# Entry
Amino acid sequence: MNMKHSILNRIIIGKSIGFVLGAIVFLILPMMGVPLDIYFGLGLWLFYIMLGVFIAFFGIMDHHPLLKFPMPWWFRGVFAGLIMHLMLILLAHGELIFIIEKMHTFGLSSPWWALIDGVIIGLIMSWAETKFAGEGALPLE
# Structure
């Protein structure tokens, strides 16, 4: 794939990954026996799309503007995934507990395990965006 390096391509890649991941969550949870509220399901779908966009814009900064330390793609992905999933857990703690109880996960009874999911998803999104659309001061086109 020979894509031109630009912020627009980072956003397209991030939105695409988020769209697919959100669709998987939206469609798989009811199949696993979790009665998913339509508003919460669509909110999760949009959350993952916005996570891709957040990481895309975060990829412009390959150095911290104030502290002047380098931020490689993996650092940005881990940080963004962790922060966004922390926000998700804090806002939807009760719903996540309900989902975990219904899924009968392998002894994982805390919604805080979703932070690991956020790190992994952030790494995947940041890697794909950096690999195919570049990083740093990119043109808008």
Q: What stands out?
A: DSSP finds five helices and no strands in the chain. The two ends are 17 Å apart (CA to CA). The chain has a mean pLDDT of 88. Residues 7-31 form the longest helix (25 residues).
